[in-house]
């Protein structure tokens, strides 16, 4: 069976996740097939069977893959470890490139690729807006990345980092020169904090996206990963590690106990 270049994508940054396959159509566009992992079970139990089913559905074997893309972070400690370990093992065993994708970049791409999900009442205010993508880091913090949403596309202006929700929201309230859109799996946590910390539920966001587009999906990992693969932005397999952006609760507690 003759198959063109094929990339496998893994997204396990949350409680569950998804997998996808991307291949090139005759017109040069990407054909992407995605399967969502069973949300009732963790990715440690569902990832490998889902990969096998997806390959079988396309009548492919692992040896027919040409590259693998995986979310590097931020996200669940366990989920990121499962995804990274699976991607590294397959890339090494198959001798194929490994590509890393940021989870918040995926959300930014999903949101800005579909204007229909934004309220039409905002009209042209969406152009030249600042998109803030967040995921819950717990303990009053979020992982956040910020993007300029321009007519030509989305441009990352503040790379992924961890920040106190209070600092993030206060900075957004002070921003007067452009509209701010909030998205990501941590958007609800930010709104909840605002409701608890202020006398009103007012917030500085012209739009809040909390639908399916606000959770990273393997289909988007495949699309963004394919672009990185084409540019030669591949990872050193043995040195590749998830990006947690913080220590675990146990590690932070231990570090705190080391100081008087």
Walkthrough of the structure:
With 260 residues, the chain is α/β, with parallel strands linked by helices. It has 2 domains: 138 residues, 2-Layer Sandwich (Nucleotidyltransferase, domain 5); 111 residues, Nucleotidyltransferase, domain 5 (2-Layer Sandwich). Helices cover 33% and strands 27% of the residues. It has 7 helices and 10 strands. The strands form 2 sheets. It has a 5-stranded mixed sheet with strand order 3-2-1-4-5, sandwiched between helices. It has a 5-stranded mixed sheet with strand order 8-7-6-9-10. The longest helix is centred in the N-terminal third of the chain and has 18 residues. The protein is globular, with a radius of gyration of 19 Å.
Quickly describe the structure.
This protein has about 260 residues and is an alpha/beta fold.
């Amino acid at each position: 069976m003759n198959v063109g270049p094929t990339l496998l994508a893994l997204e396990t940054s949350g409680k569950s996740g998804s997998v996808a396959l991307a291949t090139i159509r005759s017109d040069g566009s990407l054909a992407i097939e995605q399967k969502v992992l069973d949300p009732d079970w963790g990715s440690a139990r569902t990832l490998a069977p889902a990969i096998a089913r997806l390959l079988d559905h396309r009548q492919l074997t692992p040896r027919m893959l040409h590259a693998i893309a995986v979310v590097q972070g931020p996200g669940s400690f366990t989920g990121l470890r499962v995804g990274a370990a699976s991607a590294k093992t397959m890339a090494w065993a198959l001798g194929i490139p490994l590509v890393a994708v940021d989870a918040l970049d995926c959300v930014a791409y999903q949101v800005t690729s579909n204007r229909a999900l934004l309220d039409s009442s905002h009209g042209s205010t969406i152009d030249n807006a600042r998109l803030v993508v967040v995921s819950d880091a717990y303990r009053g913090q979020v992982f956040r990345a910020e993007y300029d949403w321009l007519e030509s596309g989305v441009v990352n202006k503040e790379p992924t980092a961890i920040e106190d929700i209070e600092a993030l929201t206060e900075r957004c309230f002070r921003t007067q020169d452009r509209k701010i859109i909030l998205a990501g799996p941590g958007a609800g946590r930010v709104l909840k904090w605002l409701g608890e910390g202020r006398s009103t539920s007012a917030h500085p966001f012209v739009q809040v996206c909390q639908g399916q587009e606000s959770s990273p999906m393997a289909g988007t990992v495949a699309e963004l990963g394919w672009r990185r693969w084409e540019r030669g932005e591949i990872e050193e397999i043995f040195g590749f590690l998830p990006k947690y952006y913080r220590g675990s609760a146990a590690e932070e507690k231990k570090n705190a106990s080391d100081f008087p």
